[in-house]
Structure formats: structure tokens, C-alpha cells
Amino acid sequence: MELLTVRLLIVLLSAVVVGGCASNSDGHRGLQRLIARGQYRQAEQALLLQTADHPHDAVIRRMLGISYYHLQDYNSAANWLNRSLELDPHDAVTRFYAGMLAERTGDLETAVHHYENFLHEKPTGELARQTRRRIVELRLESAGQFSRQALAEEKDISPGAISDSTVTVVYFSDRFLSEALRPLTTGLAELLAADLARVGTLRVVGRGRLNALLSELQILHAAAFDTSSAPRLGKLLGAANVLGGTIAELPGEKLRIDPGLVNTKSGEVALPREAVGNLDEIIHLEKQVALAAIDGLGIKLTKTERDSIVAVPTESFVAFLMFSRGLEWFDQAEYRKAAQEFNRAVEADPGFTEALEMALSAEAMIHAPSFGTIDYFENNAIFDPFIRGRSGEIEKALAGTSHRLGFMPETGGGYDEPYVGPYGKRPITATVIVQGQFDNEP
Fold first, then answer.
1. Element holding 7 (H helix, E strand)
2. What is the CATH T-level fold of the domain 26-122, as seen in this structure?
3. Which of 158, 168, 219, 291 is 20 to 30 Å from the Cα of 303, by its Cα?
4. pLDDT value at position 35?
5. Which of 213, 204, 105, 206 is nearest to 150 (CA)?
6. Mean predicted lDDT score pLDDT of the chain
7. What is the DSSP string of 229-279?
8. Hey, which bits of 26-182 come out as E strands?
9. Which carries the bigger pLDDT value, residue 307 or residue 31?
10. Does pLDDT of 275 surpass 60?
11. Percentage of the chain lying above the pLDDT 70 cut
12. DSSP code for 432
């Protein structure tokens, strides 16, 4: 048996763990080794020589993007990461770096887009959970920035400059619903926004920005749709159309949804056809409202768009009600309560994928650490994809141990200069004895 003594404060390179994404060619491995060692300038020079000979090699372009990222040449990094994605849009490593790059350049919406695509490729594991939390945090940050800026610049916003192909869905009035059913208004707004987003010619302003703006204006959700104030909401949100209305409980366990569509520019109110049906048909009623609203906007759907919109996420009223409750708790940052409701929705209908995704996000907000800035996220949430063999697994285990013990990896300087983390913790230096057989790798 061999013994390996290491300092627990050892830091892995700032990269992302995605096994099996890199090419197995010897040439790629040599270049990856340069990046793993932090020799980014040498890697850049070698990679640039190979781009002409390998015009369709996404990995070379990805490695160039990573090298430029660490060299803080963000324009070049964006160029090469985008070229890599053009060749291989499903590469998880490239998506993750593109997300971090977008964060560093202040484009939070694009960062969320890339992180979501990363999750499509790598939906499980600790990094996926950390990424889900990151997405929630970035959405909240982006929505808050947007709403504050909109209010500060309100007098300069010209409704006429807002694209006609924009729409937002506000909360339907719940004054005719019993207390138990009032969460349905949140679920209805969520599904309507998702269905309208399936229309290629529409841009939907989501609930995140709406919630942030309502909070800034101190407007209750139930009072969000008022035909007299809707044009202002639309103007502030950058939406030419505001969809809202009323949802009412009728005798005999029935529901009636009366939608209203307000034009931000003219203030005119259109009344798409109402939807009436049994309580347990609420999803089908929502589909009727979505199609009526789209028709009211004068949009002709393609068959693919229509088929996507009419697809039903769940037939279970109980599951949808639990999902709606979960959304309300999630919006209030009550993530444990939200996770309970989302998981109950999944129990009621295991095929309700929207509820499952929200459950994963809520659980990520509970269990995954918050790293704050992109620097902390990069240095704490990710590992090096280029470290091979069992030695790489050992480094991962050491990093995980240091995190669980409360140590924060340093971001620069020598090992004798402990790093003070965002929570004021100062790590200590310790010795760890790792026993076993190890690779004879350089």
C-alpha cells in the first residue's frame, strides 16, 4: 500500500465535472492536460494551430474558449464557445462555461439559458443540483434588476417602442374562489405563460419579472389584473399585451374562466371567449383560454405549435392544485413547503414533469449551498474535467470533504494565506492521509 499526504486546502482548477464529454484522442488529452495545469497561454497557441486542420472539431473550439475564459479574454472566449456550440449544441461542458461567461459579462438571462441547457444534458448529480439553485438565484437577481430599472426609467419608456409580439400573463382575480382553490390562479398563470411561450412569434415576459415588479409596486397578486392599471404594468414589463381575467367557482364543482386581453399601447380591452367546465377539467379550460388569447392576438398557429399547446401536462386536479400551492410557496421563498407540495403533486401524478422539475429546484434551494458571486460559484461548485483516473476521484473527495468541514477553497496566492469565505469563515490547514494504490500519472 502507498501513502499520499496532502494539504486539505488544495484547490482544484476552476472547471466543470462532466465525465466522458472530451474526445479520447491523444492530441486532445495532451491539450486538456495543459488546461488542467493552468497553462492556458500554451494551450491557446497549440489549439489555434489545430483549428484550420480540424474545421469540424467542437472539442478544440471548446478548449480554446475555456483557455480564453481563464485568461479573462471574454470576447475571444465567447467567440470560440459559440463556435463549439454550433458544431455540438449538446456539449454539457461548453454549455456550463458559456453560462459562467455570460454571468461574468452581466448577461444573466443568457447565463440561465445555458445553465438550463446544461441540465438537459446532465440532469442528475451534485453539480446539477447546484446549477438548479444557481438558475433560481440568477432569475431572482435579473428580475429584481429589471423591475428597479424599469421603475427608475418609467417616464422615458415609450409604449409605442414596445414590440407588438410581446405579452405577459398576470394573475387572474381570485375573489370568486374559495380559500382552498385560490392557489389555482398562480398555477393558471404559470401554464398560460408556458403555453404562450410555445408560439414562435411571441415573446413572453415571465412570472419572475411580474412578481418582482408587483413587489416593488406593493400590489397584491389578486389585484394584478385591473384594466385601468394593466397598461402601466405592460409598459413597465415591456409587454404590448397583458393577459389576465377572473376565475370563478360555480355551483356543482364547476369553474368559469373569463380572460381579458389589454393592449398596453391603446388601453383597449379584448375579451376572448370564456371557458366553463368541471373543476377537474381545469387544465383543459386553461388550454381553451390559451388558444382564445392567441386567436385574439391575431396569430395563426402552425400544427406543431398547436399540438404542443394542447398537450396536457396532467389530468389530475389534485396534482395541479398541489403544484399551484407549491408555486405560491416557492414565490415566497418557502422552499421546504414548496418541495412538499411539488412532491405531493408528483405522487398524485408521476408523469407531471413540470411538478417534478419544480420539486428538484425547490430541493436544490434547500440543500445546495449558495455561493453568491460567480467567483464563489466557479471556485466552489465545480471540478476539473481533465483530471483522469482514480487520482481525480481522490481530488474530488478531498474537495467535498473540505466543503463539508466548512473550509473555503482559496482563489489565489499561496497555501499559507488562508482564504476568508463569504460567510466570514477562515479555513484552517489540516493534513489528510489517503491510503491506497494510485495511478502513476504526471
1. strand 2-7
2. 1.25.40
3. 168
4. 87
5. 213
6. 84
7. THHHHHHHHT-SEEEEEEEEEETTTEEEEEEEEEETTT--EE-PPPEEEEG
8. 166-169, 173-176
9. 307
10. yes
11. 79
12. E
Compute the chain's Rg from CA coordinates: 25
The span from the CA of 414 to the CA of 363, in Å, is 36
Asked if residue 9 has pLDDT above 50, the reply is no
Distance of CA 224 to the CA centre of its chain: 25
C-alpha cell at 336: 421546504
pLDDT band at 218 (very low <50, low <70, confident <90, very high): confident
Per DSSP, the three-state class of 12 is coil
**pLDDT at residue 157 greater than cutoff 70:** yes
Whether residue 205 is predicted with pLDDT greater than 60 in this model: the reply is yes
Q: How many CB atoms lie within 10 A of CB 357?
A: 15
Contact call for residues 385 and 28 (beta carbons, < 8 A): no
Cell matching residue 377: 460559484
Give the mean pLDDT of 290-313.
Answer: 97
CATH fold match for the domains 26-122 and 158-312: no
**Cell for 135?**
438558475
Residue with cell 403544484: 323
Task: Provide the grid cell at 370.
Answer: 449558495
Alpha carbons 16 and 353: distance in angstroms, whole number: 27
Q: Give tens-digit pLDDT for 349-382.
A: 999 999 999 999 999 999 998 888 898 888 776 5
> Which of 216-220, 313-317, 382-386, 416-420 has the highest average model confidence (pLDDT)?
313-317
| Residue 390 three-state SS | helix
Q: What is the DSSP string of 205-230?
A: E-HHHHHHHHHHHT--GGGS--TTTH
Burial 261-290 (b: 16+ CB within 10 A, else e): bbbbbeeeeeebebbeeebebbbebbbbbb
Sign for the pseudo-dihedral over CA of 209, 213, 216, 221:
negative
**Domain chopping of the chain, boundaries:** 2-13+383-436, 26-122, 158-312
Which residue has better confidence, 27 or 237? 237
DSSP for 347-367, please give it: HH-TT-HHHHHHHHHHHHHHH
Q: Is the pLDDT of residue 12 over 80?
A: no
Q: Which architecture does CATH list for 158-312?
A: 3-Layer(aba) Sandwich (3.40)
Q: Answer yes or no: are the C-beta atoms of 312 and 287 closer than 8 Å.
A: yes
How many other CB atoms are found less than 10 A from the CB of residue 393?
11
Joined together, the cell numbers standing for residue 61 give 473550439
Percentages (nearest 5) of helix, strand, coil residues in the chain? 55, 10, 35
